[in-house]
């Protein structure tokens, strides 16, 4: 970033407004609106310049990431840096050895809140480290008594108890309130159990139903193809699913019901 900034021609004109120089406490009430407009113009012009818009410090200040405005991922909740404690998985083999505090590790991650899941990413590469789905056991606790961590925040679901460490009790409350209000508003369908024990509500007129109708309509042709084929095969459709998603939850049999393991077993 420093090299790119220095490479800009010095004589190149820039339409950058100046920031207010007077202290906040000395500004008269009648000047508040003009001061607010100055700050708004400054930030707007910063975001129009790709070099500053993509700078990690700018993104952190505004609270956005590479995944903030991808429509297919659902509405945007709060985002920000957190300290995440290792362990807490209810999937056998993913926890670190032992249960003592000396075994835990703390890692800095960027936490993203969406309508049906939470995920955290590595700040240096942007790689997604873990996705925590919203389900009927989704719950948030704060306080040292519940989390065994000063200014701790605990987020539970059927597969994990995620422990986060905040800078203060107020910071922990801000995260808890922001996550809870957003999930209750946009992800309430995932918080209760539905027909046949499903974690998701019944959806009308979906692509999956169209595919099922197509299979029913052409079932005779499909059965003929399968009967005349020398090697049995499975009909796969392009679904927006991670190959590592667990099709049966909670996870109680290791990786047996993970999607990729099911397909491998059937093949």
UniProtKB/TrEMBL annotation:
InterPro entries: PH-like_dom_sf, PH_domain, PX_dom, PX_dom_sf. Residues 75-184 form the PH domain. GO terms for molecular function: phosphatidylinositol binding. Residues 1-30 are annotated as: Disordered. SMART domains: PH. This is PLD1 Phospholipase. The gene is Pld1.
């Amino acid at each position: 970033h420093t090299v790119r900034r220095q490479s800009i021609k010095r004589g190149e004109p820039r339409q950058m407004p100046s920031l207010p120089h007077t202290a906040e406490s000395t500004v008269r009430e009648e000047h508040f609106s003009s001061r607010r407009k100055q700050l708004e113009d400054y930030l707007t012009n910063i975001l129009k310049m790709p070099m500053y818009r993509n700078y990690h410090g700018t993104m952190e200040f505004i609270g956005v990431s590479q995944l903030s405005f991808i429509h297919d991922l659902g509405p945007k909740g709060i985002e920000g840096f957190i300290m995440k404690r290792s362990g807490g998985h209810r999937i056998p083999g993913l926890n670190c050895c032992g249960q003592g505090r000396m075994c835990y590790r703390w890692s800095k991650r960027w936490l993203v809140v969406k309508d049906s899941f939470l995920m955290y990413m590595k700040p240096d590469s942007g790689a997604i480290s873990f996705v925590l789905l919203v389900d009927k056991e989704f719950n948030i606790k704060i306080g040292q008594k519940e989390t065994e961590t000063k200014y701790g925040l605990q987020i539970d679901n059927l597969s994990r108890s995620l422990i986060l460490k905040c800078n203060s009790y107020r910071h922990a409350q801000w995260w808890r309130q922001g996550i809870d209000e957003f999930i209750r508003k946009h992800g309430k369908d995932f918080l209760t159990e539905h027909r046949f024990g499903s974690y998701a509500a019944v959806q009308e007129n979906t692509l999956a139903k169209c595919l099922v109708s197509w299979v029913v309509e052409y079932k005779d042709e499909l059965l003929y193809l399968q009967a005349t084929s020398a090697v049995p095969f499975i009909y796969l459709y392009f679904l927006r699913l991670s190959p590592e998603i667990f099709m049966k939850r909670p996870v109680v049999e290791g990786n047996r019901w993970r999607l990729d393991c099911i397909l491998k077993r059937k093949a």
